[in-house]
Amino acid sequence: MLPIEVSALKKHYGELKAVDGISFSVKQGEVFGLLGPNGAGKTTTIEIMEGLRERDGGDVKVLGFDPWKNGYELHKKIGVIPQEFTFFEKTTPKEAIIYYADLFGIQVNPDEILREVLLEESAKVNFDSLSGGQKQKTGLALSLVNSPELLFLDEPTTGLDPNARRAIWEVIRSLKAKGKTIILTTHYLDEAQQLSDRVAIMDHGRIVAMGTTEEIIQQHGSGERLEIHENEKLAEYIKANTELKVDYDKGKGEITIPLQKKIDALAALAAAEQSGLEWGDIQTRQDSLDDVFVKLVNEPVGEQGETAPEEKASKKRRR
Amino acid sequence: MISGKRIFSDFKVFSRGYLRNKFGLFFGLIFPVILILIFGAIFGGGSTGKINVYAQNLDSGPFPTGQNLGTGFLEALNKSSTITVITVDPSVDFSKYLADHSASDGILIPQNFTLDYAMSQQVNVTVYGNPTSSTSGIVSGTVSGYANYFNLQRFNGTMIIGLASATVNTQQTKYIDFLIPGLIGFSILTSPMFSLVNISSEYKKTKLFKQLSLTPLTKMEWLISKMIWYVVLTIAGFLLMVGVGIFLFGAHVAITPWLIPFLVLGPMLFASLGMLVGTVTKNPETAGVIGNIVTFPMMFLAGTFFPISSMPQYLQTFAHVLPLFYVTEGLNNAMVYGNINNAIIDIVVLAVITVVIFALAVKLFKWRED
Q1: Domain B51-154, classified CATH 3.30.70.1290, yes or no
Q2: For A68, phi and psi rounded to 5 degrees?
Q3: Which of A214, A223, A259, B276 lies deepest, with the highest CB count within 10 Å?
């Protein structure tokens, strides 16, 4: 049995199709990243898997449970950090851990959990006095109280500074090393690339690409290319004297030559040398996940909040 | 399945958080005591209860200076239990003087008062009054009483009908005695109600309820833990308020076991009602407004600051649909009037309302979203 099996999942809010028939599964011990711009349907998807939202269609099995119908049993076996995690203002991380342990009816060593999420030094600080990163770590700590095999982390680093983000990454890596299965949503591409075994890129409620980041880049990227900073004259010379496809970007002043084989680069450079013309910086480059993401998702990634449903819906209608 | 252990651990975290938050503590415990101090000082034993009245004596008397009957009349009034006379110089314009001093009452002794009295000729003492002021009736009544006494004296008469005073109750019921149950009712209403409206709408907004729904804690356990806390807080507030009332203002209130149902059911009811308001409204702002709409009529119309018997009939009828009415009426019955039979009726009504509101709150309150 796979920890997570989702097929043809659907959820709409009024007119807006938040999740539009997606299917995927997650293997034991895997870190699975759900990637996408704000409003793509990531949080809706993850909340349906957590049993916090009811689905409108399709099938979802989490650890063998139907998350909506058997949420109460499921919640004893999973750990969750919701988006923008908050807690009781006047409660310290250590008290929060003891509280959760009491609720789950289990014995834990709070200090050990605090050490695991690198939060020992703030163990006795009230939640409302913690920094953003420490608050997220408190969330992580609470999600670990019931020693779950499966963790859902919904944008665990959104709004954090680079150091705090890296600290959270470290914790997530150590959890992965312990063999926990982790579902991670993020709109930071580097985060997905750093942490995930496999990612699914979502846009407008659909999965537009899925696989390891390498697979996705290979499938949807444009492959390796040679870039030369020089004028149009050189571009035309290379085009005329080789079999290669040559693109010229006037704005950037950049010649781009897609490389079918490595040896193509040599032919291009030989032609450039032969031309007797000046030529500037050269580099070979491959599409990054960023490039692929921008190509697949037809709107830029916003940094602030979710796209309003109305706005989203009207965009849909226009298309 | 309700677990006492989970309720206890939630209670522990909530009460600790509450005690660490100075605002909550202020509104829960200090504010009711301040109310008692303020209202007690205004209406309690601190003042002599005598009304200050300006008086001008134009009596020229039989002699150009010194003693005359007008002076004697004002001195007699000054010795009454109701009036303190403040004499105004005869040279000033009296009605203008009263207006300038925003005085609602005044007494004017005419020029030939002594002479006319001696000659048994009709002479009038003028009493200035304001029909909208409650003191005017007392002033004119007192002046009229003394005028009668002086009239009798003129003909060497004696009083045949005297006056002895007694109050309805076995003990004297002072305003503070009525005020204490009212203010206890007030704090039973406001503290749990406002807190739960705020908490439930905030937790919904910040998704804390969702967070809690991922633990084995159930929403009923959560609400019960809040209720227990507000019962504890109410009892602490009750002891403080009664202590201040008795020791500072000499209130006469009975402390009986019959008070316990009100101190338990009251906070349970208003915690549930607050939860209900927070649950059915969309955001904290709307919740606050609806909370006030529900709370304010109860604050003033359920017999908190003054008895509902002093209100017009239609408002008295309205008061009977306000849940707080049964708390304040019941507390009054038990603490002030010693009327346990009526208090039991209030307890029954209160219990029914509490069960209904609690059930409704638990049913409509959602941890998760559809």
Answers
A1: no
A2: -75, -45
A3: B276
